[in-house]
Amino acid sequence: MKPNEIDLAIGMEKYFFDWTEVKMNISRPEGFKVTEEIDDKSCESWKGLENGKYAVFLLTKKGRDHFSVMREINLNFRSKISYIGIKDANAVSSQLIYADARSFSNIPQFYEAEDGSFTMKFVGFANEKLPHTGNFFSITVETKSNDELQEMKQRILEISKEGYLPNFIGYQRFGTRRPISHVIGKLLLKREWEKAFKWIIGFPFLAENEKIRKVRSVFHSSRRDKVREFLEAFPSSSFYERNLLRNYVITGSYYEALKRSSLPLDIYIDAFQAYIFNRYLSRLMGEIKDKECVIKMPIYFSGCDDLCKELYEEEGIDRGMLTGVFKVKVRELQRKAFMKVRSVSFSEEKNRLIINFSLPRGSYATIFLRELSHTNPLMFT
């Protein structure tokens, strides 16, 4: 079966199993739960020391993106909060975050966002970085018919028996409703500042909020001297777009506006590398026999194999472009070709399945769901 056009757009050109489509739906965020694993155990059961170098907190969030949560915490406590992993925004998630204990005059015991979208609870101290080994997922899937439900149960059993799935980099890295982060990353590497700016602000997608979609659409066809007008047109929830527009109004330079972006620009560079990795894995997936094989995507052409060079050249990236921009260092990507799927189980409720499984750190549950359903990713992201 040919993958969905969104899959193809982010480099996922093949499926592992030769299955037909099974339509399903996940009620987000409540139906998608992710819990960080520390040393192969739930972060919710982690117990800290009575004293130590780092103050550790349990962060539980619902339907909030990672960076806006980090920004709010940093502003409220004037401390640099560190994290081990970035969790899906459109989910209910639990993870540990930490900060230098000396940065607090009084360590906050509990904090809750005004809108109730996240809580932060102090759970103890640690003297070293925490061993993040993976994530546990509990996902509630709904189908339209009992036949589809039974088919899905059989597929879960097959996946469990196989034990591995392609370790594609998932939709979240590219943008689940607006999968263009890799395009912006490529434009940054090519030093095409104006195009990168306009891709971030313009280019609407149907899956977006209608108001934002309309603003993007008008901006996309507007003149450069109209930028100031769009600063007020975007709603306050579009924090990053407003920040970028404000930067341009102040500096009059696309380069300077991007350089001052409040959103880390490395997410775009990382997304482009993820896109190249996905395309590379799609081409070689059927030839890889060792499921523990690690794929390396060098940043120097001298270290690339023929396929790697071919993919970079197809994207218009030449030898001199894989260097840092805006002090963002382009790092060699090393990633296992396949992800090990652990602790798979499911329970049934009417036309719903509650699917439980664990994945290694850096692997995506949406890739599990993609393989399970072969359906439009907008149904499960």
TrEMBL record:
Protein known as: tRNA pseudouridine synthase D
GO BP: any one term: pseudouridine synthesis
Residue ranges annotated for the TRUD domain, each copy included: 164-381
Gene Ontology molecular function, alphabetical: pseudouridine synthase activity; RNA binding
Similarity comment: family membership: Belongs to the pseudouridine synthase TruD family.
Domain of life: Archaea
Protein keywords: Isomerase
